[in-house]
Amino acid sequence: MLFDIGAGELLGLAILAMILVGPERLPKLAVEAAKMMKKLRALSQTATADLKENLGPGFENLQPSDLHPKRFVKKQLSNLMEEKPVAKTQRPQARIDPELI
Known about the structure:
Number of helices: 3
Mean pLDDT: 78
Distance between the termini: 41 Å
Structural class: mainly alpha
Largest sheet: none
Number of domains: 1
Radius of gyration: 23 Å
Helix content: 55-70%
Number of strands: 0
Shape: elongated
């Protein structure tokens, strides 16, 4: 689960919601919350697709979790460590196509 909520905690939240909102308004509130979550999920997917498209080649497998600063730096450093060392007489090859800039 996303928030790691157990069955007892979920039941407690349901009882609290029924007390605070009231049983007559609770179904409408649940429907509105579900619609909002659906819109947020669609917005997230659209933003991720736009980001992949705008970043260009090399970012086809980009996931939103990859954008966390610690994970991003760790991934970039691991990619650099996997590359073959370049001899001093050789020029390193560009990783980004200059025509895209």
